Amino acid sequence: MRIGYDAKRIFHNRTGLGNYGRDVIRILNDHSSITEFCLFNTKASEMDKFTPSERTTIIYPLHWFWKWMPSLWRLFGQWNQISSLQLDAFHGLSGEIPIQFKKRSIPKIVTIHDLIFLSHPHYYNVWDRIIYRLKFKYAVKTADRVIAISEHTKSDIIKYFKIDPHKISVVYQGCNAAFKKEYSANEKATVRQKYELPENYIINVGTLQERKNVLPLLKAIRGSQYHLVLVGEAKKYASKLYAYVKKYQMDSQVTFLRKVPVRELAILYQNATVFCYPSICEGFGIPIIEALYSKIPVIVTQGGCFPEAAGPNSIYIDPNDPLDIRNQLNRVFEHPEEYQSLVEQGYTYAQRFSDEEVAKHLLEVYKKMI
What we know:
By secondary structure, this protein is of the alpha/beta class. The chain has helices spanning about 10, 15-30, 65-70, 70-85, 115-120, 125-140, 150-160, 185-195, 215-220, 240-245, 260-270, 285-295, 305-310, 320-335, 335-350, 355-370; strands at about 1-5, 35-40, 55-60, 90, 110, 145-150, 170, 200-205, 230, 255, 275, 300, 315.
């Protein structure tokens, strides 16, 4: 079985969509008999060393024009090389299928992560909404099979694009193996010392942008003894967080971290007391899975996709109510017996997102198409 992948995000995105693509290839490399992974990459990058085995081939634009205009190659020129390779299937990992691919007989699969640009349009500018809608609509109409990363995303695909539910398979995401490893006391102490963190702290992982909604969490811990660690790249929204911390003199209470290596991030999770994630909307929420595997309780937004990721034994909050967030943080810190129960049951729930489960369901989709 030879499968082609739209791999731009694998090589040019260090966070969400990139992590998804890298995990898909890693998981299938370890848990399937796929003979070759053909990764279509727009141009070389420092991440080109991502080749999990000798079964991986990276494919670049051939013609000078496509090398000069790699974004257009991804939309219009890629299909010619795809056809010439006689692949068994092609998988668009981030909501896109090459234009003109509709005419090709090769089985086509596309993963849709979320339709937040439609369900919460105010987080996007008009031009981005137009482009995303055109790309995603074409992809779900053209693909022979659509993979949704959650039941919530599947419902949105049906709602906004009127797609037959039977065409959509829900295949949950996993997470990097680094979050499933137990680190030693010395390793944990080294990371704690490096980032100058206290013995107990709250962790939140994700890009500092508006829909991640971190400001109510800052308001919740103001005036308390709690320490908060925010791990993620800063967008425009981050200026509100910096201003709030400065205004209320919370510098000693909040730690901002960026570009943390994966291994150290995993240790930061395991060192933490609790993971708190008052995000407004997600397609799934991989940090939730990372936290469950790290054996810490999860406090997360009620509704949406969050119960699918966090399970029945996490704590749910109104994300815009600092008092509710504060009360639930108190609950975790002040009740050790319940704390241990949340950890154990959360870790058990996380096993449905194991590499073996993800591989099994992806292969079911591939084999059905081929």
